[in-house]
Amino acid sequence: MTEVRVAGVGLTRFGSHPERTGRDLFAEAADSAFADAGVDRTDVEELNYGNFMGALAEHQGHQAPLMAEAAGVRCPATRYESACASAGVAVREAVRTVRSGEADVVLAGGMERMTNLDTEGATEGLAIAADDLFEVRAGVTFPGAYALMARAYFEAHGGSREDLAHVAAKNHANALPNEYAQFRSEVSVEEALDSPPVAEPLHLYDACPITDGASALVFVSAEYAAENGLDAPVSVTGTGQGTDRMALADRADLAATPAAAAAATAAYDDAGVGSGDVDLAEVHDCFTIAEVLAIESLGLAEPGEGISAARDGRTTADGDVPVNLSGGLKAKGHPVGATGGSQIAELTRLLRGDHPNSEHVPDAEVAVAHNAGGTVASAVVHVLEVAE
Amino acid sequence: MTDEGAPTANAGYDEWIDALAAGDGHALVCPEGHGSLPPRRVCPECGAADLAGEPLPETGTVETYTVVHVPSPRFADDAPYVTAVVRFGPVRLTGIVRGIDPAGDEDGVEVGATVEADVGERETDGGRIVAFRPVEP
User: Fold this and answer.
1) Is the complex ipTM higher than 0.85?
2) Sequence ranges of the domains in chain A
3) Mean pLDDT of the residues in chain B
4) CA diameter of chain B
5) Its domain of life (chain A) (predicted)?
6) By the 8 A CB rule, do A83 and A374 touch?
7) A139 vs chain B: nearest CA distance in angstroms?
8) Smallest CA–CA separation between A331 and chain B, in Å?
9) If pLDDT is split at 50, 70 and 90, which confidence band does B101 have?
């Protein structure tokens, strides 16, 4: 099986760019990725592009050829959609394509444009990741769905809003030096607790922001990297994906995310590592409770113990396994269709040593990315390792 | 927004919510006992094609709930409202709890509460919703 290297990563600044087109955002990220990789864009053999709600936000379907143009590549181009895991599945297929020997160079990533919509429009757009007949018509919003999970978690395991506020404070602190982050400002536990309710028990500072942005990654075979003298020290050694019942109410356990656990098991097995080998993680903290559920699914905390991980300092920058050193979706931002690619970009920078938070993980060798769609009806997990 | 003008027809779902409104709420149950809601051709858990209709219990138990303050447009005039997930025998239903004060500390809903299921209307646009009402256990 061909080894897959991350040759280059590119990101736009995450934030509010309501006037910028999706094609311009992705073009910037792709440009940065090619520059970082030192790969000629004419060598790209496939484009795997993630996007969730472009048909609503930009009235633009069929985005893959448009983004191939924007990136200046002419090759088979496909849009992947798995709600907030869209870029995760795009990355996964890129990894599988290079591994299979089908291609030596694949461009993957994603884009989402959201702030051109008002809050109601964005809320409506995000809600379509839920079951329209049985959830959305019952008033389930995206924050509402995670609020249902948060209360179920509290009932099953205990925990409090204050525990969740520590997740928010941690991720905001991590985002401070990150030049790509939407929010580079601290949020205290008290401020998070005092923020207005969105869907109780979740409040405003439990939620990620509405974000515009794009991510792009150049994946190459190890042979291509060697032949072209690329500096590509990070390898994607594991990939896994899981699926669960679409509607939250149909899940066996409302306080766990087995699709992510299945994805993690598959990715760890694929890489030949265990959860105990993981040095750092980027997880899908669209809401603070989502980080709790994620680290339990990844085996970084036992069921019922993820809630206290941030408060106890186990997942902070100087903790045993730092989680979301980028700032996470919570503070770095969550351009839905770009997020799964952004996580790989951030982990690559952290492992290479050129991330502003690399100083917290100087000896890290194994990193894991967790990207989830909807209320984790879809989940993708990747393992990255330092190969040289 | 699917409820503006003529309602979108969703065969299977529409008949199911009509039945719930008429007091004939039901679930589909496979030979293994897995419950699901229509339209279904096979059991989503095990793929069995032999699905039988089974009446829902008269009352259900709230397993989780949220008070939604920031709604989507079609619930704009309903907020704040309480969405709950309620166990009714072989299935859970997701719906809106009526007959309580969503913003109040007292007389709200709580996990473990007993409710009955009916069909109500969204205040915003009159669209039909699964509605729960607390009952004495």
Assistant:
1) yes
2) 4-117+209-381
3) 92
4) 46
5) Archaea
6) yes
7) 6
8) 20
9) confident
Compute the Cα dihedral for A346, A352, A354, A358 and give only its sign. positive
Distance CA A212, CA A207 (A): 16
Contact status of B68 with chain A (Cβ, < 8 Å):
yes
| Beta strand A46-50 pairing with A105-112 | parallel
Q: Are A315 and A30 contacting, i.e. CB atoms less than 8 angstroms apart?
A: no
Confidence of residue A123 (pLDDT cuts 50, 70, 90): confident
- pTM attached to this predicted model: 0.97
Other residues' Cβ atoms within 10 Å of the Cβ of residue B11: 9
User: Which residues in B lie closer than 8 A to residue A123 (C-beta atoms)?
Assistant: 70-73
Residue A196: exposure state from Cβ atoms within 10 A (0-12, 13-18, ≥19): exposed
Closest to B84 in 3D by CA, of B65, B99, B101: B65
The domain made up of A4-117+209-381 has a fold known as Peroxisomal Thiolase; Chain A, domain 1 (3.40.47)
Q: Does B75 touch chain A (CB under 8 A)?
A: yes
Residue with tokens 């509607």: A247
Q: How distant, in Å, are the alpha carbons of A42, A104, A257 from that of A220? A: 13, 5, 32
CB contact under 8 A, B94 and A249: yes
Residue B95 Cα, gap to closest chain A Cα (Å): 5
Decide if A149 and B64 are in contact by the 8 Å CB cutoff.
yes
Question: Looking at the partner chain, which of A121, A139, A248 has a beta carbon nearest the beta carbon of B68?
Answer: A139
- Whether B42 and chain A come into contact, CB under 8 Å, resolves to no
Question: Of A250, A370, A322, A301, nearest to B93 (Cα)?
Answer: A250
Distance CA A10, CA A34 (A): 8
